[in-house]
Amino acid sequence: xxxxxxxxxxxxxxxxxxxxxxxVIHADLIVSVAGIPLIGVNLRxxxxxxxxxLKYGVMQAWDEKSRAWERxxxxxxxxxxxxxxxxxxxxxGSYYYSKGIYATWKPGYFYLTNRRLILHRQDFDExxxxxxxxxxxxxxxxxxxxxxKEKQKQVLYLLDKQDQAHxxxxxxxxxxxxxxxxxxxxxxxxxEENPVLPELEDEQIAGLLMEEERVIHRGxxxxxxxxxxxxxxxxxxxxxxxxxxxxxxxWYDFDRKMVFDVSIDRIVNVSSEMRKVSGLDSKKExxxxxxxxxxxxxxxxxxxxxxxxxxxxxxxGVVSARSAEVLGPEMETCPQxxxxxxxxxxxxxxxxxxxxxxxxxxKGIHEVKLSIxx
Length: 374
Fold this sequence. Notes:
single chain; PH-domain like; eight-stranded antiparallel sheet; 19 strands; 40% strand; flat
């Protein structure tokens, strides 16, 4: 048989042929250096669609085991209901879980019954969230940032009578909210109108707050320019910035830990400007630079995000108020290290911590040196 070659074949044709007929790879490779064999590779592989694999008796045991597991698995698709409980609505969604060692959206199916709202995870046959209908105080719908850039999603906040707020997301969040409201109305109860949604904090964040410390400003996702460490170059990382009445800290979402932390009285200056944050072709973005003192040196922390102007305004307001409260009219901070001192001492003697000298005093020292040399 003479070999034929079709130059008009496409990638789709290739994939169709592999799935339908299959592909067998049989290769023996030897890697040599200077004629000396170092590595040997013996490769045996078969690639085809599952229908073709089973036709030739390949992976039959695995297929039978998987189908048996799926049949057994489907029996547990519905959660265990209470006596007299009936399902009124089933909808795919997720519940924001933040009580363990990590915080994440846990997916499953919402079941609205005549008694309660349940989120059931059939993969683990567990009820992740449930709320008796008589314990629901209010429902609030909010637009929140999606993990896909420039996209918003609807989040349903369920407030119970213990003043706890639960975050829920569903394929049709508005439909789920309406069904819950109708079910509660049928019970002869009513939800609270125009409720005040409490500020939510992850338990990890709440555990970081000191005594009498409270968060006074927070916002959407903020990117932090992490300093270079070892072979890792400086890089922008996503997280959340928190300003309290005592300090400013940044929480790294991926590692679930606090990476940047500085007290308000150590912040020397706050400024923002438009500049490129990555690549030669990237657009300019608003970047917030925070200059703070550590020992006798100054360091800069940079942040980027959509609410940088609001952050700059909030920080400047808090830092100014803190300085006026702590320093008083006769005190000032060193422009280099941020240490507080009497204004007259800074101008006359300079900073005793970092050695900073005022321009006027520096000029006088320079003139004295010139007169001595002459």
